[in-house]
Amino acid sequence: MTKSPVDWAADVLGSGEDILVPVKQLWLDMQRQRIGTGLSVEAFTALLEADGRFEFFEGVDHGEGDEEERALMEELGFYSGPRVKLADRELTAEYVARMLRQSTQNMLEALEGAWEVRPTDDPEAEQQLLEILTLAQQLKHEVDTALEEAGLEGEAHS
Fold first, then answer.
1. What letters, b where the CB count within 10 A reaches 16 and e where it falls short, cover 131-154?
2. What is the rounded CA–CA span in Å between residue 38 and residue 60?
3. Which of the four, 54, 110, 134, 137, has the lowest number of CB atoms within 10 Å?
4. Which residues contact 82 (CB under 8 A, 6 or more apart)?
5. pLDDT for 73-84, tens place per residue?
């Protein structure tokens, strides 16, 4: 017998490395496994919200209202919308530190990828991208330093 989408989500959130997951990412994973076929992301969200085992957190809109930009960000692994976790699974300082490190590293890698494919005939765009890349590198350094000072060294830095 196939698991219900809600029980599947509880199993994934209870056993996975990630504690706090974008609902959209969870829904896409569920669809790939052919669970809840035909269930929209909105209906899936409503099912989870109705179950007391789940706790929701406000998400972000990586496309700032632009569907095309949002789709591009999702291809890079940055999902918009609410986040969900099991209510009985604690968000530890170590987990938050790891996620912060991972997010800043992902951002930096995405910007480095954009630098590699930047238009060579647009010096203004190249200068803007270079400035953003420099700020991202500074942010990553500041995050790493702050986490080290807080005693949350975690993984080695890249």
1. eebeebeeebeebbeebeeeebee
2. 25
3. 134
4. 22, 23, 45, 56, 57, 58, 59
5. 888 778 889 999
Token pair belonging to 120: 């060579």
Q: Which two tokens stand for residue 35?
A: 């669970």
Tell whether the model's pLDDT for residue 23 goes beyond 70.
yes
Tokens 């909105």 identify what position? 42
Q: Which of 82, 90, 79 is nearest to 19 (CA)?
A: 90
CA 65, 35, 88, 74 dihedral sign is negative
- The residue behind tokens 């270079």 is 130
Contact 54, 85 (CB under 8 A): yes
- Kindly report the average pLDDT of the chain as a whole number: 88
Burial 60-80 (b: 16+ CB within 10 A, else e): eebbeeeeeebeebbeeebbb
Residue 56 β-bridge partners: 84
Residue 116 contacts residue 58 (beta carbons within 8 Å): no
